[in-house]
Amino acid sequence: MKVAIVHDDLLRRGGAERVALQFYRMFPNATIYTLAYHKENTYSEFKHARVKTSIFRVLAKSELLMKFLFFPFGYWSMRGMKVSNYDLVILSTTYAAKYASYRNCKKIIVYCHNPFRLLWYPESYSFYDKLRGVQKSFFDSILTRFKKTDRKHAQRFDHYVANSSMVKERIEQCYEVAVDTIINPPVDLDNFDSKVERSDYYLVVSRLEPYKKVDLIIEAFNAINKPLRIVGNGTMKKKLKEMAHANIEFYHGLSDQELKAQYAAAKAFIFPQVEDFGITPLESLASGCPVIAYAKGGILETMHHSENPADSTVTYFYQQDAKSLIEAIEKFEMQERATTSLLRGQAEKFSAQHFERNMGAYLDSI
Predict the structure, then answer these.
(1) Distance between CA 18 and CA 135 in Å, rounded?
(2) Could you say which residues of the chain have pLDDT below 50?
């Protein structure tokens, strides 16, 4: 069977890229099509794949440039990418993969991580809230135009898989297409160490972008002066480092083993954003590290919550602000901790093996 995998871009090591990697593991002879590929910035296994990129790779020298120049250069570059004569094509997409040209392909599956966030949920970006008057009206008019284009391209495909219940609702609302099924993303649980002695620091693993709400965490930890480690990179890194007090440390470019060591020794993992799914909290559980999270989005599907703290993998906070997070941290520190086996057991429900089995059964069914 001739298979193609089409992923938006391979410029980072995020959850969507991990899904694309799992598809590649399922179909190691597949050709991967993507807007741009920087092998040093994403998962190393892609080095062994046959990767075809658009001409946009010449301009997209960084993730920031890719985002800044996507309209119109990235859009037109993806429109020019031809994916032809495949038995099976799997799109792993949020924004770009749907724009490629598909010809003579027998079956096309869209695994959607989220509708194009900038077009459909611009309020999740801090810069949008700052727009005023003519500037905002102009930007909204562009969004309206491109939303029609985005929906038109999305409606070309017959088979959609959503990564969570939240995303299923969004796909059906934004694109007006039916979703066949929900298959949660895979979490690579191998080699996470749950037997390391715990330290006293709290941990964040995240891209440093506005909607990730890392600034909220920094505000809270500046106030309570507890040790915090932030692992990640992104457009807000400079601003966040300027905000942070001496009790907060920043890391990025860690190897897999170094990152797993950070999880293994952390006191708890902090997750303040609204995500459609959220892989990092499950990686934390696989390390025997409990989670403190904002109670909205995919986290409600992946965590086990109970009124009995010893039977709960998560401590929730219910307002997306520093005050509510501080209250959750104080509550967490006073309550009984869940066992490592309970935390690990919850994570294993979302293993790569589960994903491959569920995705394989779905593909067989169609």
Answers:
(1) 37
(2) none
Read off the tokens for 251: 């890391």
* Omega before residue 290 within 30° of 0, cis: no
Cα 320–323–326 angle (5° rounding)? 100
- For residue 362 the two structure tokens come to 């779905």
**Cα separation, 182 vs 160, whole angstroms:** 9
Residue 124's pLDDT is: 76
What per-residue confidence (pLDDT) applies to 99? 98
Please give the backbone phi and psi of residue 85, each rounded to the nearest 5 degrees, phi first: 65, 50
* Helical spans, DSSP H, in the chain: 15-26, 63-69, 75-79, 117-120, 126-129, 133-154, 165-174, 214-224, 237-243, 256-265, 280-286, 299-302, 322-334, 340-348, 352-365
Quickly tell me which residue has 């293993």 as its tokens: 351
CB atoms within 10 A of CB 247: 13
The span from the CA of 243 to the CA of 246, in Å, is 10
Handedness of CA 261, 302, 212, 182 (dihedral sign): positive
Distance CA 18, CA 283 (A): 13
For residue 13 the two structure tokens come to 């090591």
Q: Which of 236, 278, 230, 268 is nearest to 252 (CA)?
A: 230
Do the strands 3-7 and 31-34 form a parallel or antiparallel pair, or are they unpaired?
Answer: parallel
**Residue whose entry in the numeric block shows the structure tokens 């891209």:** 207
Model pLDDT for residues 318-347, shown as the tens digit of each residue: 999 999 999 999 999 999 989 999 999 999
55 token code pair: 């001409």
**Residue 235: per-residue pLDDT:** 84
Task: Tell me how far apart the terminal alpha carbons of the chain are, to the nearest angstrom.
Answer: 15
